[in-house]
Amino acid sequence: MSDDSDNKAYWSANLRLVGICLVIWAIASFGFAILLRPLVAGISVGGTDLGFWFAQQGSILVFLVLIFFYAWRMNALDREHGVDEE
Amino acid sequence: MDQTTLNFIVVGASFALYFGIAIWARAASTSEFYAAGRGVNPIVNGMATAADWMSAASFISMAGLIAFVGYNNSLFLMGWTGGYVLMAMLLAPYLRKFGKFTVPEFVGDRYYSNAARVVAVICLIVISVTYVIGQMRGAGIAFSRFLEVPIDIGLYIAGFVVLVYAVLGGMKGITYTQVAQYCVLIVAYTIPAIFISLQLTGNPIPGLGLFSTMSEGTAGAGQHLLVTLDGLLTDLGFREYTATTNPWLMALYTLSLMIGTAGLPHVIIRFFTVPKVSDARWSAGWALVFIALLYLTAPAVGAMARLNITTTMWPAGIEGEAVSEAELPDWFETWKVTGLLGVEDKNGDGLIQYYNDANPDMAAIAEERGWAGNELVTFNRDILVLANPEIAQLPGWVIALIAAGGIAAALSTAAGLLLAISSAISHDLIKSVFRPDISESGELLAARISMVVSICVAVYLGLNPPGFAAQVVALAFGLAAATLFPTLMMGIFSKRMNSAGAIAGMLAGLISTCLYLFLYLGFLFIPGTAVFDSSQYLFGIPPTHFGPIGALFNFIAAFLVSRATAAPPQEIQDLVESVRVPRGAGAAQAH
Prior knowledge:
The structure holds two protein chains of two kinds. In chain A, 73% of the residues lie in helices and 5% in strands. By secondary structure, chain A is mostly helical. By secondary structure, chain B is mainly alpha-helical. At the A-B interface, helix 1, strand 2 and helix 2 of A face helix 5, helix 10, helix 11 and helix 13 of B.
């Protein structure tokens, strides 16, 4: 079994990963798709601007990538810290 | 063969499939009834979660919501998918590790308090019952439109079908039925969308077609679809499809839907059915894959339908004559009968002019051309998806498939909600609070009886929907965001959070949300009891957007009260430690 300090390191690695993922989550949805839309309005995509594309397609694709990336990284972290399920 | 017979055959075949699954997947133990024996493959669970989550609202209403508003209503797309990121990273794997059967059970054990558990049960029941009403109505309407049976008969049939597989199979039966229902609904949704996208843009993938140029032979050949649509709409006095109105309110509503989604108990319990913590992580991703297949298609369905309707009304372009009443397509006639679609030749010229008569800039044009107001007087947004195959002139079996798909979307969500309600009653109230000595077979019987009672209540509420159904949905999301989500999250991420803090937080979220809704929408939504009207919103925030603010109150109250009171006992801190690491999830299965 793993000891306490290893569990602490595992947990802070998890928190760091969740933090990074949620920053990207917020930039893709609240950022590009809504509040920062005027900033990226210059980039045109299929007859409209990048913000519109993010609002109707891009943000959902980013969410998908994030969840799979998180699952893959966490399952690897489980093994590195010896807390995976046997 | 006429269309109704064909609809009966396709819908009947889908029901036969659900019954077959029900007999195959009978539940023999409480673990099978509540959590499908924790033996569900993560991809299968992802598919079941997608069907569980995508309700009659996602299937029938969402494309219409986007079509008639445009960019602003993208908030439904982002809000209802973005919540899965929160669920996958902040809740699902840890709750799976905890290894129990219901959401209130985690609240009760983590906060070592039956009071906290009962508050959680109350929140869960309010949220889920609200949702069920909408599903039963949706199924009833699909029955009456496609099978030409009265709504009340449709509701009895819907109730009976759910009864068979949910009571027999519990979570196990519901899971495998939801997989079948997902297949029916996604095929029904995407086939018409693919054909329409091909007709308009030549691109078979609707999500790409939305950003493509129009095909030869269409109104705006060679021009981007969205440019064509924006042009048509502004010429008719409507707002541009791609225009932004209030980004801050849009962001707040999106956040409200995201947190609300992550806190919905009937979705959370789906992650209890997978064998391992790592499976719960993957499963959230698979759920979003299956949801995204519909959610990436919906905005294309919306924009293309809006374009098709506009060009149908103006076959010779806006400079030319409007469509004559005699030349309206057949599907207009079919839907006029339902009262969901209506035209009125106000200026008596035999033509139907469709434009935005509320826009003052249109007054001069209307006077010059002899228009006397918008003549497409009713166009219910819910028709859009249901009429889509007819608009695209697809064969009868596609229309029948849409009927089966709409019913599948409603039934799969209803079943998931009913399981959440009945397991909260049998497991959290009967087993944990009133009769802790109940035997396994006694609890299984109690679970089945609670399920039957829940279905009867749902059918009754479907037959007699409270007049405030739409407002209550705002309450459901607001409560999920303001009560369950913060409480569950703090239970995992804050070891210091104690019983007093959690109860204070839940009450702060519950009371502030109810108060804000009741002040603006009426006490218990009774008409005429509202204290303020929509011009007096605090900081301009509508009640539907209140979720994140209620959640903030929950967090603040919980933090302050927990810091002022003693830390939770050592065994609870150990419990939090153990929930945070996956190792040992297998052992936690033994209940």
